[in-house]
Design a protein that fits this description.
Elements (H helix, E strand, L loop, with lengths): L1 H4 L3 H13 L7 H22 L5 H8 L48 H9 L5 H5 L3 H10 L5 H4 L2 H10 L1
Helix pairs in contact: 4-9
Length: 165
Amino acid sequence: MTWMDNFDSAALRRETERAMRLPVGLASPLWLAFGAAASAGVAWWWMSRLGRPFNIEAKMATASDAPAPVLEVAPAKAPKTPKARLVKAAPVEAAPVVLPDDDLTQLVGVGPKLAAALAERGVTRFAQLAAWTTDDLAAIDLALNLRGRAHRDNWIAQAKTLAAS
């Protein structure tokens, strides 16, 4: 055992105690590489999420889509007037009110060509879009080959907001 005679046991003990205080995994350069890769992955994920266009008004509208409370109002009573003073007017037929079409290009993701394609299918008002169900939205998305744009841009919530204003 000549090779063991050359060791200083006190120095060996000090080095062993010092090595045991340092966590073994911390000394490995693989942890540094793993940390760098994980950080890069997290940074890429956040940047890909933050780089997308985001329509905050549409998201806010979907959060507040709860039905409004229904208020019941008692009908107002007609004032009492002498019968001699009441005059019946001849019934007048009201002319149908024709409202101009809404500008559908105000919706995020709808350009002039897409607005024209919607008009060909009879959709010209925000109120029509606001009344759509998710099935209607999926059918239009498939018919116009929008690849989910209508759902991503939340057209229904945007239309509800624009129809109310």
